[in-house]
Design goal:
The protein has 557 residues and is α/β, with parallel strands linked by helices. The protein contains 17 helices and 18 strands. The chain folds into four domains: 133 residues, Rossmann fold, CATH 3.40.50; 97 residues, Putative Large Serine Recombinase, Chain B, Domain 2 (Hect, E3 ligase catalytic domain fold, Alpha-Beta Complex), CATH 3.90.1750; 148 residues, no CATH class; 76 residues. 46% of the residues lie in helices and 20% in strands. The protein has a five-stranded mixed sheet with strand order 2-1-3-4-5, sandwiched between helices. A four-stranded mixed sheet has the order 12-16-17-18. A hairpin with an 8-residue loop joins strand 6 and strand 7. The radius of gyration is 34 Å and the shape is extended.
Length: 557
């Protein structure tokens, strides 16, 4: 009997098994089996601390890659649940091994691909999957019971301002106040609640004061300070059970886990020592909420931030400031300029000065949007002949309904394939999600087309609402006096602003908005082309011509 080149695969999942080195007992048992069979061990594949619910494991991936090579002839595995906990994953891995003519030894027995062994493998895999589900359920039920009784979980979570005390056989884990860090937390909350300084300034002050630094970090940065200000634990309650998995099927692989917040009623709170009062915490949250909802930039506001898009590539534009210096005859003068610029690095649409674009948009409101007759001609729904639009809408609705029926038929066909074992579980889940997403999109489009149908038959409804909209815009336009009110005005009436520099002498600006007509938003588009003279007239004041060394920044509209 000739000796064969053999390899072994071993796996443990939990951290406790990894610490207790239970993987070594598996390796020792498999080595005994290889020695007893008279084979030669050439390589070992070991996944230490990886769950069997995951198909993506380092050693398993390496083993599957080496199947194509003539590295070994026989694979030794202690049990079927070491291959995977999921039946589908087990069939995939064993199928690949048999495809490359490898001998499989499971628990000392030769696995031959026949109906009996396949049935046994499926049953054992189902039992392993059920055992894992029950184990998770018991662990979660135990955690829930301890939390309901006010017992802290021993997860080793570190929070600035507290010292985590590990659990012992006599007492559960707990949090104790770190007096030195607690003073810093109180200072952060009090300084921010006053409203005089921001988060970045507080971070600079703490750095200058030499506050205690967190482990592994130079100082408390802006993101950490923001997390501290929003952490309700400092009021005396630490909450658990706050997150849940949005997609339990896709959560079998870590890269597909999507988490979402649970309802507030499902949270479970455990009392901890308080560092700040509830009133102080509420004041801080009120200011954070105001800052999130309010556009704050008192030095040089950008009313169109978040509303500007590039007409050339379709990307969003961002506003930024820069400082440049002009050399004069006897001095150096400093200038600051703000511009909107396309986010795409490959786009060649030049940036545009904020003053030019904002003044142009406001003039478009004053001259066109406040004029009902001109605005009526800018409504997208009525730019062409009404009958042609109506026929086009009917054709589009018919196409959408046909696609809905086709999507439902494809979904039924995929379900039949999965029921007859002609389609793998992962592929079935992926396709079903795609079809459901497409079905929801088509349904929303169909509802939108049905809602727009009456507007084609009776355009007078649109004219009446256009007049009311123009009157409302005219009233609101008179009341904005500063950057905050102008920003709020634009947010209320502007959907997006697009710009593109067509050539060296013209820049096209498109203003898009929506008019509510019988609870149906009707889009309108106002287009204005600025020539070179208008652009130069809208530009902010530049240095005088007598400053002989002045050079304007390049690539600016």
């Amino acid at each position: 009997m000739s000796m064969k080149k053999a390899t072994l695969y071993a796996r443990v999942s939990s951290d406790l098994q990894q610490k207790e080195r239970t993987i070594e007992s598996q390796i020792a048992e498999l080595r005994k089996q290889i020695e007893k069979a008279g084979d030669v061990l050439v390589k070992e594949y070991i996944d230490d601390g990886y769950s069997g619910a995951l198909l993506d494991r380092p050693a398993m991936n390496q083993l599957r890659g080496d199947l194509k090579k003539d590295l070994f002839d026989t694979i030794y595995i202690l049990n079927t649940d070491r291959i995977a906990r999921d039946v589908t994953y087990q069939n995939i891995i064993i199928g690949e091994m048999l495809r490359y003519r490898k001998q499989i030894i499971i628990n000392g027995k030769d696995y031959i691909h026949n109906p009996e062994n396949k049935f046994t493998l499926t049953v054992l895999g189902a039992v392993s999957e059920l055992e894992r589900a029950k184990l998770i359920e018991r662990v979660m039920r135990g955690r829930q019971h301890r939390l309901n009784n006010g017992i802290m979980l021993g997860n080793g979570h570190q929070t600035y301002g507290y010292t985590y005390v590990r659990k012992t056989p006599q007492r559960p884990p707990s949090f104790e106040v770190n007096e030195q860090e607690a003073q810093v937390v109180q200072y952060i909350f009090e300084a921010y609640a006053k409203g005089d300084v921001g988060i970045r300034t507080i971070g600079q002050q703490l750095a200058n004061m030499g506050v205690p630094r967190q482990k592994g970090r130079n100082r408390l940065n802006q993101s950490q300070l923001k997390y501290i200000l929003g952490n309700i634990m400092y009021t005396g309650v630490r909450y658990y059970n706050m997150m849940t998995c949005r997609d339990p099927i896709g959560a079998q692989q870590k890269k597909h886990i999507r988490r979402m917040m649970r309802k507030r009623s499902d949270w479970i709170g455990v009392e901890v020592p308080a560092i700040v009062s509830k009133d102080l915490y509420d004041k801080v949250q009120a200011r954070l909420e105001f800052n999130r909802a309010c556009y704050r930039n008192t030095k040089q506001p950008h009313p169109l931030s978040g509303l500007v898009w590039c007409s050339k590539c379709g990307s969003r534009c961002f506003a930024y400031r820069r400082t440049y210096y002009v050399k004069l005859v006897q001095q150096v003068r400093t200038y600051r300029r703000a511009s909107y610029k396309c986010r795409s690095d490959s786009c060649r649409n030049p940036e545009i000065n904020t003053v030019i674009l904002e003044s142009c948009v406001l003039d478009m409101f004053r001259t066109i949007v406040t004029n009902p007759e001109k605005l009526y001609g800018c409504v997208d729904l009525l730019k062409r002949k009404r009958r042609a639009n109506r026929d086009k809408a009917k054709k589009r609705l018919k196409v959408i309904e046909e696609r809905i029926r086709a999507t439902e038929e494809q979904k039924r066909r995929i379900t039949d394939l999965y029921a007859s074992d002609e389609l793998a579980r992962e592929e079935y889940i992926r396709r079903v999600r795609e079809y459901e997403k497409e079905f929801e999109t088509l349904q929303s489009r169909r509802k939108e087309m049905v809602r727009y149908a009456p507007l084609f038959a009776n355009p007078t409804l649109i004219r009446k609402d256009v007049e009311e909209y123009s009157l409302t815009v005219e009233k609101c336009l008179k009341h904005h006096s500063d950057s905050l009110t102008a920003r709020q005005f634009l947010l209320n009436f502007v959907t997006r602003v697009e710009y593109q520099r067509k050539d060296l002498k013209s820049t096209v600006v498109k203003l898009r908005g929506s008019i509510p007509v019988e609870k149906v938003p009707v889009e309108f588009t106002v287009v204005h082309t600025m020539d070179w003279h208008e652009v130069m007239a809208r530009r902010p004041k530049q240095p005088s011509e007598e400053d002989r060394y002045y050079r304007a920044p390049p690539h600016i509209v």
